[in-house]
Design a protein that fits this description.
The chain is built from 5 helices and 14 strands. It has 244 residues and is an alpha+beta fold. The protein has one domain. It has a 5-stranded mixed β-sheet with strand order 2-5-11-12-13. A 3-stranded antiparallel β-sheet has the order 4-9-6. Strands 1-14 form a two-stranded antiparallel ribbon. The longest helix has 17 residues. It starts with 6 loop residues before the first strand and ends with a strand.
Length: 244
Amino acid sequence: MTKTKAKARWKMAEVEPPPPDHRRVFYLTGAQFAVSDIALQRIKIARFSDLNDPFELLGVDRSDLENRSALLKQTKDIDEQSGLICFSGSWKNPVLWGHYAEKHTGICMGFDVPESSLHEVVYAESMDSLKKDKKTGEPKLTANDLDRLKRTKFKDWAYEEEMRMFVPLGAMKSESGKYFYPFSKQLSLREVVLGARCEIKLEAIRRIVDSRTTVQKARLAFRSFSVVPHKNASRIRIGTNASG
């Protein structure tokens, strides 16, 4: 009896939906940073003053000198006391990969985060007015004003579909001036997508994530300006078939 050559058996990578009251959000970065984050099970907490939008915390009319002085003090306090992690609602926009994932050579990580921890960015066409205290006549930002200020950006940023998780820094431990948030039930890694130009092998990532995390390769879509899963390249080998 002649034996035939063993054939590999494959299955498609399947993405599980987030649990109730959670949302799947996406964080794009360079490949080396993503691999480090996954290996160390943590992600860097950003500071408002380090973000790429110079209008962070400045989304109100500051034409009045008194308003500028009052706002500067309050925004400085916010930046010193609070950090944030910025996510996108989707990973399929090619501009995101170009801006945040090193020209499509990087990696996107998908996290399940409780909806109560996420805050949608407000994309505004014009700046809000800064209200004044009725008694003192001085500029005043209420708690609602501050909340809106921390998540307001110019409308042209809307392609990001940004969601923010704010992190108080008081209880966090600093590492050389940087803060990190651990992977946990509040930040559960469930997807890893390798960019269309990423040179890292899928199996290298699959070895360092748990079995519930789906690892895929991305490709450029054929019929639209979007990034989509490369289904064939993302297949998972499950064994071999041999007959004889």
